[in-house]
């Protein structure tokens, strides 16, 4: 339902996309994972006809987005990185307006608006101007607007960035419903957890090119699975703590914060390894402020794949 081959896009001297390939089967979710500046939003804009690439090709629902952008747009629902709603209109008015722009009849547009207000838990605020909405409410309304015409392909550009825990969980629930109804989704995100929860497949990009491709479990396996993280009470115990962690670590022990914070990739028996570490710390009188097993973060994945952390940068 979504395919791209060799997409290239440049902004003056910056190559935002450097030959990106993507493929999303019908009814599946592909997460495009990467830090700010990796090229995620540029890829979204090319796939949704908002930008024309310098090279490569892209198709949505079998339609060439470069040769026939109008036909492609009719198949796409897009929720961009920032909520694009008219803040002077109410939620109901925004949804009805979108329906009319899609040439739905007036009554059909109103009925569809009411359905979406209920689905996104916005009925209580339906007749308030959207400029009075919280960030989470505006984000939910923006996604509702993308679904007015029930498009078969939905593109979500960092849909939960900046949302609180409740709003993020609600968005995840809605996304799951869309997929269960047969929609095909392209989701960009900075959060490995989000990709883990929602995606069937993940493409990790950096500097506009693919650097890894697989399921969340496959990607996390490249970072050694779970990690043992330790915060020491004093850097005087760093040498002893590193010696203990080296006995169970997969790869090198990472040391930061002047020697007080340590990370070690654990093997398949992570819980047993942690128990051994705690016993050794007690034996060697190593004092800790915090210790535990942590799942890999986006930085862990990027550090493993590229040798550098996912630092924020302007695209």
UniProtKB/TrEMBL annotation:
Record's keyword annotation contains ATP-binding: yes
Compartment list: Cell membrane
Membrane topology: Peripheral membrane protein
PROSITE patterns, A to Z: ABC_TRANSPORTER_1, ABC_TRANSPORTER_2
Taxonomic superkingdom: Bacteria
Gene3D superfamilies linked: P-loop containing nucleotide triphosphate hydrolases
UniProt entry tagged with the keyword Protein biosynthesis: no
Pfam families: ABC_tran, DrrA1-3_C
Domain ABC transporter: 2-232
Single GO MF annotation: ATP binding
Chief location: membrane
This protein's UniProt keywords: Antibiotic resistance, ATP-binding, Cell membrane, Membrane, Nucleotide-binding, Translocase, Transport
Entries under PANTHER family matching the protein: ABC TRANSPORTER ATP-BINDING PROTEIN (PTHR42711), DOXORUBICIN RESISTANCE ATP-BINDING PROTEIN DRRA (PTHR42711:SF19)
Family per similarity comment: Belongs to the ABC transporter superfamily. Drug exporter-1 (DrugE1) (TC 3.A.1.105) family.
NCBIfam families, alphabetized: drrA
Name of the protein this chain belongs to: Daunorubicin/doxorubicin resistance ABC transporter ATP-binding protein DrrA
Species name: Nocardioides aromaticivorans
């Amino acid at each position: 339902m979504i395919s791209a081959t060799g997409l290239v896009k440049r902004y003056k001297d910056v190559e935002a996309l450097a030959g990106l390939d993507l493929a999303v089967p019908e009814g599946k979710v592909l997460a495009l994972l990467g830090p700010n500046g990796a090229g995620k939003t540029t890829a979204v804009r090319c796939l949704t006809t908002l930008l024309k690439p310098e090279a490569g090709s892209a198709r949505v629902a079998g339609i060439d987005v470069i040769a026939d952008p109008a036909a492609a747009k009719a198949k796409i629902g897009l929720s961009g990185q920032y909520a694009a709603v008219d803040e002077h209109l109410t939620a109901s008015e925004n949804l009805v307006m979108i329906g009319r722009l899609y040439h739905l009849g007036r009554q059909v547009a109103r009925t569809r608006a009411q359905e979406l207000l209920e689905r996104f838990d916005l009925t209580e605020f339906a007749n308030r101007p959207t400029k009075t909405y919280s960030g989470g409410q505006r984000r939910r309304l923006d996604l509702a607007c993308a679904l007015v015409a029930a498009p078969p392909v939905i593109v979500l550009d960092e849909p939960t960035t900046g949302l609180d825990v409740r709003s993020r969980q609600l968005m995840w629930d809605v996304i799951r419903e869309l997929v269960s109804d047969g929609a095909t989704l392209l989701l960009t995100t900075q959060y490995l957890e989000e990709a883990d929860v929602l995606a069937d497949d993940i493409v990790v990009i950096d500097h506009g090119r693919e650097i890894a491709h697989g399921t969340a479990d496959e990607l996390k396996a490249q970072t050694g699975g779970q990690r043992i993280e330790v915060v020491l009470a004093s850097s005087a115990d760093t040498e002893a703590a590193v010696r203990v962690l080296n006995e169970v670590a997969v790869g090198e022990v990472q040391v930061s914060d002047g020697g007080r914070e340590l990370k070690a990739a654990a093997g398949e028996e992570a819980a047993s390894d942690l128990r051994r570490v705690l016993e050794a710390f007690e034996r060697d009188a190593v004092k800790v402020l915090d210790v535990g097993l942590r799942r890999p973060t986006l930085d862990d994945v990027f550090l493993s794949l590229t040798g550098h952390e996912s630092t924020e940068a302007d695209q």
